[in-house]
Amino acid sequence: SISVYLNEELILSNHGLTKQKDKITVTLKPNQPNYVIIFAHNEGTEPPNTASISYILPSGGENIFNIYSKINQSGAIIIKYKQQ
């Protein structure tokens, strides 16, 4: 299971990973880094924990990232977008 933070704010707590997609809508801060951190509570039966994160661009495109985390090593990405 994992917890997900956006800019130090907990947005998903102790969530069990499955192959089913979960949708969480968040608001990114424009013109500055937005930190998404995945914290592993355990590694399950197939370590490391892997979370696929996608976000929709204002133009309609989509970016997809895989984030890996282990018990003593959190995974993170930085998202920065320019507000038009």
Architecture overview:
- With about 80 residues, this protein is mainly beta.
- The protein is built from no helices and six strands.
- The termini are far apart.
- The mean pLDDT is about 85.
- The strands form two sheets. The protein has a four-stranded antiparallel sheet, with no helix packed on it. Strands 4-5 form a two-stranded antiparallel ribbon.
- About 0% of the residues lie in helices and about 50% in strands.
- The chain is globular.
* Strand order in the largest sheet: 2-1-3-6
Q: In angstroms, what is the radius of gyration? A: 13 Å
Share of residues in strands: over 45%
Structural class determined from secondary elements: mainly beta
Largest sheet: 4 strands, antiparallel
- The rough form would be described as globular
Count of DSSP E strands?
A: 6
Give me the number of helical elements.
Answer: 0
Low-confidence stretches: none
Mean pLDDT: 84
Provide the helix percentage: under 10%
User: What is the terminal-to-terminal distance?
Assistant: 37 Å
Could you give the order of the helices and strands? Answer: EEEEEE
